[in-house]
Amino acid sequence: MGREGRSALDAGADFLHLDVMDGHFVPNLTMGPDMCRSLRHELPEAVLDVHLMVDDPARFAKPFASAGADLLTFHIEAVDDPVALSETVRGLGMAAGIAINPPTDVSRIMPVLDHVDLVLIMSVNPGYSGQVFIPEVLGKARTVSAALEPEQRLAIDGGVNVETATACLAAGCDVLMAASAIYGSDDYAGSIAALRGGAGIVAGSS
């Protein structure tokens, strides 16, 4: 994992996006704080963005802060008080992100925008890599983008590739999370350059 992360960064990725799944909030099960800690050890200069797709994200804030995460993103669907959790995350020295799934109405996330550093629009139903992009979420991205301050970031994750990246950027997204489009390629640098298209931040999604 360290070698792949290094390869993506050396090829031009701006940071690494770590998908954490608990087998409950989403059907798949993936890495925990120990993977984050190992990547921090191997890649001390890398920005590590941890995306919590879990039922109780508050329980993992401190473990991932201790493991070296720079940004912790949790789902609006998984918390009762997203503002309080955002304050907890920031109090632990991390930036705070909030994610929203494709079926969730954008109105759920709008009252939280002033309290987060990044908004993540899911363009697939979370759980597995390689899914087909859901274009209807771009309307949600446009709504959120119009309400953000210049220092806040708008990310999109799921089915992001060379064909969909242009529409994502046009909708106001300035961070593109990509897994298959990078790691499934024989040319990481070429893939990242093509995704960026002259604008936007690209993250290798693990």
Which stretches are poorly predicted, pLDDT < 50 over at least 5 residues? none
Q: Sheet with the most strands?
A: 8 strands, parallel, barrel
CATH architecture: Alpha-Beta Barrel
Class based on secondary structure composition and strand pairing: alpha/beta
What percentage of the residues does DSSP assign to strands (E)? 15-25%
**What is the share of helical residues?**
25-40%
Radius of gyration: 15 Å
The number of distinct structural domains comes to 1
CATH superfamily annotation: Aldolase class I
Question: What would CATH call the class?
Answer: Alpha Beta
Number of strands: 8
CATH topology: TIM Barrel
Distance between the termini: 8 Å
Overall outline: globular
Number of H- or I-type helical stretches: 8
Order of helices and strands: HEHEHEHEEHEHEHHE
Strand order of the biggest β-sheet: 1-2-3-4-5-6-7-8
Look at the structure and give the mean pLDDT. Answer: 94
Structure summarized in a few sentences:
This protein has 206 residues and is of the alpha/beta class. It contains 8 helices and 8 strands, in the order H-E-H-E-H-E-H-E-E-H-E-H-E-H-H-E. It has an 8-stranded parallel beta barrel with strand order 1-2-3-4-5-6-7-8, surrounded by 7 helices.
Walk me through this protein's architecture:
The chain has 206 residues and is α/β, with parallel strands linked by helices. The protein has one domain (2-205): Alpha-Beta Barrel (TIM Barrel). The chain has 8 helices and 8 strands. It has helices spanning 2-10, 33-42, 58-66, 82-91, 137-147, 162-170, 180-183, 188-196, and strands spanning 15-21, 48-53, 71-75, 95-100, 118-122, 153-157, 175-178, 201-205. It has an 8-stranded parallel β-barrel, surrounded by 7 helices. The chain is globular, with a radius of gyration of 15 Å. The mean pLDDT is 94.
